[in-house]
Write a structure and sequence with these properties.
With about 120 residues, the chain is mostly beta strands. The chain is about 0% helix and about 50% strand. The chain is elongated, with a radius of gyration of 14 Å. The relative contact order is 0.32.
Length: about 120
């Protein structure tokens, strides 16, 4: 299963970005989804997730500025980020999990760079 991400780029502080990932074979069958990020010299951290139980959770650093969503029709998972700050600069990764019945698939995107700078 290939997960393709898009939407990263350079944005000024205070600006917005919408990151998306698409996994054609998982269309409408996603069990859980999440966005992680990794800044240079730092560990990968969870930004936002929809858990297996359907709960939406956000890291304290982005709560109120980020929205994770799924478009089942389009087969995409998105992360809307508003009021971006320089500390949001990182490579962002999409993670999708899917219950196939006899095993759980865990799929990652290739990462998309987000740079917040004036």
């Amino acid at each position: 299963v290939e997960v393709v991400e898009s939407g990263g780029g350079l944005v000024q502080p205070g600006g917005s970005l919408r990151l998306s990932c698409f996994a054609s074979e998982l269309h409408g069958t996603i069990s859980a989804m999440a966005w992680f990020r990794q800044a240079p010299g730092k560990q990968r951290e969870l930004v936002a997730e929809r858990t297996w139980g359907g709960q939406i959770e956000y890291a304290d650093s982005v709560r109120g500025r980020a929205t994770i969503s799924e478009d089942e029709h389009e087969g995409t998972v998105s992360l809307q980020m508003n009021n971006l700050k320089p500390e949001d600069t990182a490579v962002y990764y999409c993670n999708i999990q899917r219950d196939w019945g006899d095993y759980v698939g865990d799929y990652w995107g290739q990462g998309t760079q987000v740079t917040v700078s004036s």
